Amino acid sequence: MVNSQARPMIIDTDGGVDDALAIIMALNCEQIELKSVTVLAGNIDVHQAANNVLRVIDIVQPNQRPLVAKGCEKPLVRPPFNAAGIHGSDGLGELHQFKNADGSPCYPQLTIEPSSEDAIDVLVKAAQEYGSDLTIVALGPLTNIATALQRDRTTLQKVGRIVIMGGAVKVPGNISAAAEFNFFVDPDAAQMVMESGIPLTLVGLDVAMKAPLPRKDVENYAQKHPSAVAQFIGDCTGIYMAFYRDNEGFHGCYLHDPLAVGVAIDPSLVSTESVYMVVETEGKFTSGMSLADLRDRRDEATYPPNVEACLDVDTDRFLKLFYELI
Ligand code: BDR
Ligand code: CA
Predict the structure, then answer these.
(1) Are residues 174 and 204 in contact, defined by beta-carbon separation less than 8 angstroms?
(2) Which of 74, 284, 61, 309 is nearest to 168 (CA)?
(3) CB of 256 closer than 6 A to ligand 1?
(4) pLDDT tens readout for residues 158-193
């Protein structure tokens, strides 16, 4: 049953492991109606990313299936840069390795395909149709959204808010010392979105790294609540969590993208500061760095705040919401 009060949402995603968990949350949330999922290259190429989104929808089996549309195949200016080494060569933890007792694949090839509509058209049309009621949650590089701005800025500016998983305000980057992955992949797009005039909420590493999901909790959850979704979550997070075990010293992962969906559903999960932010598009060592003006004597008349940056999160309440929605 679809809630008639549900708020329209679009997820823009690069189809990785934490993207998948975020999409599961959105599909299961009665307060929102996930109209479309627009897809782009980032963690993995755009075709595989779209396939991964369809896989998630196929497993969750929602009453209403969102449209899935492919968009940008590469960043605006930079060469493509993926995270297959972290999310697996398929972007979803090498699902082909999982077999049933009879040797058949647990995740056989899908028979469904993405829409033939272009993701950029989908974004512009949704902005026109839903205007300020629409929230876009951006879980990958911002190339699709920047391209939609280039195509029809006035219409895109009707959107109520974009909740962005990206950037790092007071903490270091993750893909480089300075930059978070999504901004690093397409800094030009990120800067274009910063200048868009659309209300922006930035769910960056400051808060994402305060919401870790330990491997043992995923395993306990699957034991207590056996289901196709729980099985899928355990399977797709295996390689991703092993990366954190080997590189960051804890066996689990951060819930970057799920937290962005959580904040879009319930903004009271985080505390924010209004800041003027730019994204470095050229720096030799700092490309993709999000730079917020945090000076006491900042000149707000010349540089008005353009972003609500999340700086703290109620991790317990967020994890409660996460478990309710998976
Ligand atoms: C972001 O990078 C991607 O690999 C994740 O999916 C997330 O969107 C975190 O920096
Ligand atoms: Ca992502």
Answers:
(1) no
(2) 309
(3) yes
(4) 999 999 999 999 999 999 999 999 999 999 999 999
* Cα 287–Cα 290–Cα 291 angle in degrees, nearest 5: 110
- Pair of tokens at residue 36: 């479309």
Q: What is the pTM of this model?
A: 0.97
Centre of ligand 1 to C-alpha 258, Å, is 10
Nearest 10 degrees: Cα torsion 216, 218, 220, 222: -150
The share of the chain scoring above pLDDT 90, in percent, equals 96
- State in Å: Cα 83 to ligand 1 middle: 9
Q: 16: Cβ below 6 Å to ligand 1? A: yes
The reply to whether ligand 1 has any atom less than 6 angstroms from the CB of 165 is: yes
Cα–Cα dist 12/235, whole Å:
23
DSSP designation for 209: T
- Per-chain residues with Cβ under 5 A from ion ligand 2: 14, 16, 19, 139-140, 257
User: Which amino acid is it at 153?
Assistant: R
What is the distance in A from the centroid of ligand 2 to the CA of 40? 10
- pLDDT reading at 154 higher than 70: yes
| Cβ-contact 36, 69 below 8 angstroms | yes
Buried b (16+ CB within 10 A) or exposed e, 252-286: bbbbbbbbbbbbbbeeebbebbebbbbbbbeeeeb
Q: Please give the Cα distance from 194 to 222 (Å, whole number).
A: 40
